[in-house]
Amino acid sequence: MRQLIIRFRRAAAAASGTAGTASVFVVPCQQHTRLVSRTIANSAAAYIKSSTTCSFAQTATLAQGVKMLGARKTFTEDFFFRQLFDEQSHTYSYLLADITTKEAILIDPVLEQAKRDAQLIKELGFTLKYALNTHMHADHITGTGYLKQLLPATVSVISQNSGAKADKHLVDDETVQFGRHVLKAMCTPGHTNGCMTFVVEEQGIAFTGDTLLIRGCGRTDFQEGDSRNLYRSVHERIFTLPENFRLFPAHDYKGNMETTVAEEKRYNPRLTKDVEAFVELMDNLNLPYPKMIDKAVPANRECGLYDIPKEA
Predict the structure, then answer these.
(1) What is the chain's Cα-based Rg?
(2) Angstrom distances, CA of residue 252 to CA of 6, 164, 308
(3) Nearest-CA neighbor of 267 among 228, 229, 231, 214?
(4) Which long-range contacts (CB under 8 A, 24 or more apart) does 268-272 make?
(5) In terms of CB atoms within 10 Å, which end of the chain has fewer, N or C?
(6) Which residues are paired to 158 by β-bridges?
(7) CA atoms within 13 Å, Cβ hemisphere of 167
(8) pLDDT in tens, the chain (312 residues)
């Protein structure tokens, strides 16, 4: 055995002095192979600095990050997506369409942007089939009613639980179709009784309204708001979607545009708390009375048919 080690060391020394060549060691048996392997491993370990090693916690964090940034679904070639913004109310609207059939839907339109949206839809050659609201908004008047005048074929859509008028009312897990694409409506109450999250499963996306915002959530101190219901809606309906699903809220006030299920499950400062801590936090936000609520809610209850600008 000792002679084997001596021969190995001599051969290794000879190999280290010969640049650009490879040495082959012939080991007579499996037992000797294990011995040589241990010798190589021990020698290599001696040259690894402590600064290059990762703790178990660091390794776990890295693995978690890799999972969080897992591959996302790519939009199919026949799917159109456009995110639109209203600066006054910080509201996002979303135009989705089937590129083949030209049928389109618009999520959470804003009254002041109805002309802009109608013009874009015409320029793209789309037909607006549905104008949907994720809930009855309190911070702006929906553009649904005005769009029905600008684009007469439009059908207004909202949750049956919203208390608002519409051409079509949705119940939990009901779907609407535009071209070959399907949007599923999930009831996610808490911010209001009628809040819904719209999911397009094939594209890996969901529109969360005010239920779940980017690193936040909608307030629960008016319009039948309920903190426990909101917490349950997020954890049981939205956080159970695949972690790589992209989430698009109805509002953002910091310049963010989208998030993912994985991100919010890990980094949402409100919804990573347990339910009791979340309820206590929401009960003590002490937010000011919404500026638009007395005007927006009555208007939106009539599906935006109130205070529509007159055409010249």
Answers:
(1) 29
(2) 70, 24, 25
(3) 214
(4) 268/212, 268/215, 268/216, 268/217, 269/215, 269/216, 270/216, 270/217, 271/212, 271/217, 271/231, 271/234, 271/235, 271/239
(5) C
(6) 169
(7) 14
(8) 555 445 545 554 554 444 444 444 444 444 444 444 444 344 433 333 333 333 444 334 434 554 667 788 999 999 999 999 999 999 999 999 999 999 999 999 999 999 999 999 999 999 999 999 999 999 999 999 999 999 999 999 999 999 999 999 999 999 999 999 999 999 999 999 999 999 999 999 999 999 999 999 999 999 899 999 999 999 999 999 999 999 999 999 999 999 999 999 999 999 999 999 999 999 999 999 999 999 999 999 998 887 777 763
CA dihedral sign, ordered 260, 261, 267, 268: positive
Residue 159: CB atoms within 10 Å: 28
Strand order in the sheet with 246-249: 175-178, 181-187, 196-200, 205-209, 246-249, 259-260
Q: Are 65 and 263 in contact (CB under 8 A)?
A: no
> Could you tell me the pTM of the whole model?
0.79
Quote the tokens at residue 171. Answer: 């119940």
Q: How far apart are the C-alpha atoms of 160 and 158, rounded to whole Å? A: 7
Half-sphere exposure of 238 (CA within 13 A, CB side): 39
Please give the span between the terminal C-alpha atoms of the chain, in angstroms, as a whole number: 101
102, 181 Cβ separation under 8 angstroms = no
Distance CA 147, CA 142 (A): 10
What is the token pair recorded at 198?
Answer: 């719209």
Query: Identity (one letter) of the amino acid at 57?
Result: A
Tokens 């402590």: give the residue. 50
* Residue 244: half-sphere exposure toward Cβ, Cα within 13 Å: 12
Three-state SS for 137?
A: coil
Contacts of 150 (CB under 8 A, 6+ apart): 114, 115, 118
Contact 49, 64 (CB under 8 A): no
